C-alpha cells in the first residue's frame, strides 16, 4: 500500500519504517527540515535499538523516503498516519493544535478518498474534531480512524512488529478493511486486532497509560512504606507479582515515572474527566505521589548530609527517563539535577545515549563524563537515576579508586544488599534496608 506518515518522532519514524518493512511504500513528512535532511542522508535522528537496520534496508530498497513537502506525500498515499505531538497545553489538557492544523493542511490537498489515521494519543472526541476539519475544508470523502500506538521506547521496533494487540477505532467498513489488511503481517501469531468505535479507541490509550502509571505509583508508595516499617519491597514485589491477577511486570519501585507519555497522559485524562464534571480521584493522587517520588532521592541525600550539600560533588549515572532510549522528556534525573544544583552541589553525569539531549537543554550546568567511571572522579557519592544494563555489574574496585566516599544513593535498586554490605558501602535504595 501507499502510506504517508506525518511526523517522524519516536512514533512516526518507527511506524513508517516498520510499515515499509512489510512491503508498503512509505513517505514520511516532517516540518523539521534539519531532521528530514539528516534522514535523507541516511542518519537515524533518534536512538531506538534495531531501528537503524530496518531504516537503512528500506531506504536502500526504495520503500522508505522523507520529505518536508506534505503535498507530495498526500497525493501519493491511500492511508495517511498522523504521529504528531500532543503536549500539554496551558491548562494541562492535550494540545490538539498540531493534529487539527495538520488535518486542515491535508484536507486542502486531498483529491481522492483517503483514510486519515490518528496515531497520536488524543482525548475522546478528537476523531470527530478531525472529521469536522475535513468537512469544513474539502468535499472529498475521507474516513478518520483512531489507531493509538502502544509501543514502548527502547523496544519500539519489536513492539510495532509484534504488537500485543492493535486497536482500531472506526465505524467505516471500508477503512476497517484497509486497516485490517495493512496490519495483517504484524499479527500473524494470532495477537488480536480490536475493532471498536473511535471514542472507545481514544480512551483505550489513555486508560492503558494511566493504569500503568497507577501501578508504578502504587508500588512506589508500598516501597516508601517498606522503608518506614522495615519491610523489603523486593520480597513484597515477588510476593504479590506471582498472583496472575497482579502480574510480575511494572512492579519495580523507583524515583517516579517520567517520559513523554505517562505524565502528560495521566494529566490529560484527569483534565478531560474534569471537563465532563467527573473527578478522577485516583489519577489526582497518582500525579501528586509521583511529583513527590521524583525527589525521593534528593530527600535521602539531604538527610544524609544534614540538609547541607553546598560544595558537594555528585556522580550521576543515568539521565534518560528509562534505559535504552535517549529520550529525556520529564526524566526524573533532570528534576534531581535541578534540585541538587539549586542547593549548591555540583554534578558529573554519564548516560550511554542521552547526554547530547541533556546538554542541548542545560548546557554546562553539569559536567558530562566520557564513561561511568570518569563520572565518579572526586565524587562524594554516586547517584543512580536510570537502570541501564551497563550500570548493573560495575567494577567496584575501579569505583573505589575514584570515588571520594563509598556512598551510593540508588533510585533503581540495581545492587544486591548483601553485596553492598560485603563491599563496605553506605547504600541507600528504594524500599529496602538502609546499608550503612
Ligand atoms: P515526537 O515529539 O518525538 O515527534 C513528533 C514529530 O512531529 C517531530 O519530529 C516534529 O518535528 C513533527 N511535527 C510537528 N508538527 C508537524 C507537522 N505539522 N507536520 C509534520 N511534522 C510535524 O513525538 P512522539 O514521541 O513520536 O509522539 C507522537 C504522539 O504519539 C504523541 O501523541 C504521543 O503521546 C504518542 N505516543 C508516543 C509514544 C512514545 O513512546 N514516544 C508511544 C505511544 C504514543
Automatic annotation (TrEMBL):
EC annotation from Swiss-Prot or TrEMBL: 1.1.1.22
One MF annotation (Gene Ontology) recorded for this entry: NAD binding
UniProt keyword annotations, A-Z: NAD, Oxidoreductase
Pathway note: Nucleotide-sugar biosynthesis; UDP-alpha-D-glucuronate biosynthesis; UDP-alpha-D-glucuronate from UDP-alpha-D-glucose: step 1/1
Catalytic reactions of this protein: UDP-alpha-D-glucose + 2 NAD(+) + H2O = UDP-alpha-D-glucuronate + 2 NADH + 3 H(+)
SUPFAM superfamilies cross-referenced by the UniProt entry: 6-phosphogluconate dehydrogenase C-terminal domain-like, NAD(P)-binding Rossmann-fold domains, UDP-glucose/GDP-mannose dehydrogenase C-terminal domain
Chain coiled-coil ranges: none
Active site feature: 261 (nucleophile)
Highest taxon of the lineage: Bacteria
Residues that bind NAD(+): 30, 35, 86, 121, 153, 264, 329
Domain UDP-glucose/GDP-mannose dehydrogenase C-terminal: 315-417
SMART domains (UniProt xref): UDPG_MGDP_dh_C
Residues the record lists as binding substrate: 150-153, 205, 250-254, 258, 322
GO terms of biological process kind: polysaccharide biosynthetic process; UDP-glucuronate biosynthetic process
InterPro entries: 6-PGluconate_DH-like_C_sf, NAD(P)-bd_dom_sf, UDP-Glc/GDP-Man, UDP-Glc/GDP-Man_DH_C, UDP-Glc/GDP-Man_DH_C_sf, UDP-Glc/GDP-Man_DH_dimer, UDP-Glc/GDP-Man_DH_N, UDPglc_DH_bac
Family from the record: Belongs to the UDP-glucose/GDP-mannose dehydrogenase family.
Protein name: UDP-glucose 6-dehydrogenase
Source organism (scientific name): Pedobacter insulae
Amino acid at each position: 500500500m501507499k502510506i504517508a506518515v506525518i511526523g517522524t518522532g519516536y512514533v512516526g519514524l518507527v511506524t513508517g519504517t516498520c510499515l515499509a518493512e512489510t512491503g508498503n511504500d512509505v513517505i514520511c513528512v516532517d516540518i523539521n527540515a534539519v531532521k528530514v535532511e539528516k534522514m535523507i542522508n541516511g542518519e537515524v535522528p533518534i536512538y531506538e535499538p534495531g531501528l537503524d537496520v530496518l531504516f537503512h534496508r528500506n531506504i536502500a530498497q526504495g520503500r522508505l523516503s522523507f520529505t518536508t513537502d506534505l503535498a507530495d506525500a498526500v497525493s501519493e498515499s491511500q492511508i495517511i498516519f498522523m504521529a504528531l505531538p500532543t503536549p500539554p497545553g496551558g491548562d494541562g489538557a492535550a494540545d490538539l493544535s498540531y493534529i487539527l492544523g495538520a488535518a486542515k493542511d491535508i484536507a486542502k490537498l486531498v483529491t481522492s478518498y483517503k483514510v486519515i489515521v490518528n496515531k497520536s494519543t488524543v482525548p475522546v472526541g478528537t476523531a470527530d474534531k478531525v472529521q469536522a476539519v475535513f468537512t469544513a475544508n474539502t468535499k472529498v470523502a475521507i474516513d478518520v480512524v483512531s489507531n493509538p500506538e502502544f509501543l514502548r521506547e527502547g523496544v519500539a521496533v519489536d513492539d510495532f512488529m509484534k504488537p500485543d494487540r492493535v486497536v482500531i477505532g472506526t465505524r467505516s467498513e471500508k477503512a476497517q478493511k484497509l486497516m485490517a489488511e495493512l496490519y495483517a503481517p504484524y499479527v500473524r501469531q494470532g495477537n488480536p486486532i480490536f475493532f471498536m468505535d473511535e471514542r472507545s479507541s481514544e480512551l483505550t490509550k489513555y486508560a492503558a497509560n494511566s493504569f500503568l502509571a497507577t501501578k508504578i505509583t502504587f508500588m512506589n508508595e508500598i516501597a516508601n512504606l517498606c522503608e518506614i516499617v522495615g519491610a523489603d519491597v523486593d520480597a513484597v514485589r515477588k510476593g504479590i507479582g506471582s498472583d496472575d491477577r497482579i502480574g510480575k511486570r511494572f512492579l519495580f519501585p523507583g524515583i517516579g515515572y517520567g517520559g513523554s507519555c505517562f505524565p502528560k497522559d495521566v494529566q490529560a485524562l484527569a483534565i478531560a474527566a474534569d471537563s465532563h464534571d467527573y473527578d478522577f480521584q485516583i489519577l489526582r493522587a497518582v500525579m501528586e505521589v509521583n511529583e513527590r517520588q521524583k525527589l525521593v532521592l534528593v530527600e535521602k541525600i539531604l538527610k544524609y548530609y544534614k540538609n547541607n550539600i553546598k560544595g558537594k560533588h555528585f556522580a550521576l549515572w543515568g539521565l534518560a527517563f528509562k534505559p535504552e532510549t535517549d529520550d529525556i522528556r520529564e526524566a526524573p534525573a533532570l528534576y534531581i539535577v535541578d534540585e541538587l544544583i539549586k542547593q549548591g552541589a555540583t554534578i558529573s553525569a554519564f548516560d550511554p545515549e542521552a547526554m547530547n539531549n541533556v546538554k542541548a537543554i542545560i548546557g554546562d550546568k553539569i559536567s558530562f563524563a566520557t564513561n561511568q567511571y570518569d563520572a565518579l572522579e572526586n565524587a562524594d557519592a554516586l547517584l543512580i537515576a536510570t537502570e541501564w544494563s551497563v550500570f548493573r555489574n560495575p567494577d567496584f574496585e575501579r569505583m573505589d579508586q575514584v570515588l571520594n566516599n563509598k556512598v551510593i544513593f540508588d533510585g533503581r535498586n540495581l545492587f544486591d544488599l548483601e553485596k553492598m554490605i560485603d563491599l563496605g558501602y553506605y547504600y541507600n535504595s528504594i524500599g529496602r534496608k538502609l546499608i550503612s
